[in-house]
From TrEMBL:
It comes from Halococcus morrhuae DSM 1307. SUPFAM superfamilies: AraD/HMP-PK domain-like (SSF53639), lambda repressor-like DNA-binding domains (SSF47413). SMART domains: HTH_XRE. Signal peptide: none annotated. GO terms for molecular function: DNA binding. It comes from the Archaea. This is XRE family transcriptional regulator. PANTHER family: HTH CRO_C1-TYPE DOMAIN-CONTAINING PROTEIN, TRANSCRIPTIONAL REGULATOR PROTEIN-LIKE PROTEIN. Residues 20-48 form the HTH cro/C1-type domain.
Amino acid sequence: MRFIEEIVVDEFLPTFRSLLAERLRERDLTQSEVADILGISQSAVSKYAHGEVARNERVLDDERVAGLAEDLAEGLANDELTSVGALVESEILIRQLERDDLLSELHAAAMPGLNEYDGFDVHDPDSSLRAAERARSSVRRGIGTLEATSGFAGLIPNVGSNLVECVPDATDIDDVAGVPGRIFDVKGRTTVPGDPEFGVSGHVAGVLLAARDNGNDALAALNLAYDADLVDRLESLDFSTVAFDGERDTDEAIAAVDAADADALYHTGGFGVEANVYLLAPSAADAAARVRDLL
């Protein structure tokens, strides 16, 4: 795991400082004066001047980086800019480059898992990256709960179960994390084929999105094999259950019922359609925890 701050320290700063030191030396400042301005030792300035510090070619070739080094050197050499002012300008560029730009690209090269996110900003608490990783983490926790819950395998329908969670602004199944290939009962054992991914659940994700489109604020769903006693147990626990027509298009069927306050949606099946109960919950971890109350 590498933080973007490490990319700044290891790749950006040595390159940028060397550029700035070169530009200051070109303006006839002594090594001592350059060292004072940059807050580094004279020996470090000497290393920069003699090319003894490794520089990142992508940073070196970026016109914005080179342009800022030139502007700062001019202002610092002429006493038109203070060290604090130079720091502020440098920080502004760094933050810009961290937002889906040069530094974020270098970060993604060091952390390949970041490549699946477009326009990510690791510093943004409301970023899509953070929301997606939280959803995926919640599904993982939920899976762990289900695997540890004795009796859950008996609730898995023949078509398999899926535990899903969407990001808050989800619009389609690509915004919903779930289990690839579904969860199955293999000889009484809950079997999960892979790590949660986005866009792998069409059916359960579709039910969740349809419920949300009709006013439900759930972020997660889990499907179980339908049983009238299961619906009764849900209602005995004060969960609101709503039936819909499983033979109709999912969006149309859920739009035809009052799904806004439902804690569970269910249908009793039809020709070629297996009956299912869909638990709705604030998170995948919550949905899995509710299974324990049903057993």
